[in-house]
Amino acid sequence: MPPPETPLTPDRVLEATEDVLRRFGPAKATVVDVARALGVSHGSVYRHFRTKAALREAVTERWLDQAHDELAAIARAKGPAAERLREWLATLFAAKRRKAGGDPELFATYLSLADENSGTVARHVETMVGDLTKIVESGLASGEFTTRNPRKTAQALWSATAHFHDPVYAEEWSDPGAELAFADLFDLLLNGLRA
Amino acid sequence: MPPPETPLTPDRVLEATEDVLRRFGPAKATVVDVARALGVSHGSVYRHFRTKAALREAVTERWLDQAHDELAAIARAKGPAAERLREWLATLFAAKRRKAGGDPELFATYLSLADENSGTVARHVETMVGDLTKIVESGLASGEFTTRNPRKTAQALWSATAHFHDPVYAEEWSDPGAELAFADLFDLLLNGLRA
DNA sequence: GCGATGACAGATTTCAATATCTGTCATCGC
DNA sequence: GCGATGACAGATATTGAAATCTGTCATCGC
Fold this sequence. Notes:
InterPro entries (chains A, B): DNA-bd_HTH_TetR-type_CS, Homeodomain-like_sf, HTH-type_TetR-like_transc_reg, HTH_TetR, Tet_transcr_reg_TetR-rel_C_sf, TetR_C_27
Pfam families (chains A, B): TetR_C_27, TetR_N
Number of strands of chain A: 0
Number of domains of chain A: 2
Strand content of chain A: under 5%
Order of helices and strands of chain A: HHHHHHHHHHH
Largest sheet of chain A: none
CATH architecture of the largest domain in chain A: Orthogonal Bundle
Mean pLDDT of chain A: 95
Oligomer: homodimer
GO molecular function (chains A, B): DNA-binding transcription factor activity; transcription cis-regulatory region binding
Protein name (chains A, B): Transcriptional regulatory protein
Radius of gyration of chain A: 20 Å
Domain HTH tetR-type (chains A, B): 7-67
């Protein structure tokens, strides 16, 4: 138990938690493990996070927000809405595929965290649909798209593309035909959006 | 152990298995339970199904095929393809919603059976996409729809409507807005299909 | 004074002994 | 002869006692 090199911050606790989750998996990772990794008593961890559940929720949120800067930028950008819609969806799909394929065990770990934190996931989905709504609205403004209700259309788009972003379909993402299936679906949807 | 009223047939075994699954759930139902329900020794059950897994697979297949006569009739019928597509999807959605909402515990039981039998489920999905392909082809023939590849389009439709037939989304089916969300999505897709 | 500590109670998990189940097959009785 | 039986071996599940974990808090040392 060496004295702490740096003061204990929520961020350092989160980092240690991620390490412990990586090493032991979601079922075995304990608060005591996190404290041990930090060289402090587990009481100190509880100073920064009220419960183990809160700690795991914070880690989940961090993971879900990972790719969001890039996506938000596409949603905010100028240019043809159709192009940006395709790019936004393709970027999302690519990010998911990278996470799922790169380290399947870690992906499974975060999946089980997401299962525990449906509220956090719902908020994340809200953000995603918000991005899509922005794109649909800009397409409506430019005359590219026709729709009565951009938000509902965005929700329909989110729903319709679930196969390419919902982790329950992760197994199918490594299928060689996945890119083509995505293109087919996107064409159908884009055609539906057009005036 | 009364003597069997009727000769032991695969069908009687299946029926008894369904009963046992209903009563004990997928985790607790055993072959010995099924035999007991039939008033025979468990050895006799193994005369009709090679393994417990085969028995459970047969029950799963039966459950998946339940609503299919009605759907196949819609796919084969005459009339506007758009109408039939809407009816086919609406009928599927209604059937799923009925099963999930009517007896959630039994639904959960069959879900866990489906999880064990991915091959059987894949074959069932093939059948469903086959129905959709028929409808898309008839729409193409009548000039209602435009598409390069009816089968791929049918797959895209299956994908896109997952929120309303994939059991992973069953929780959302009881949401009061579900019908509206379905209508929004269907309109978008139908618009995409049109010439 | 203030963050860190570790003993503690109650909840949860682990582990090993025990019981039950699956699948086979030699044997039975009709 | 032929379907049904139940004893059996190995695999799987259950159970309850022991170990560990979560969350609290009185106390410590800087």
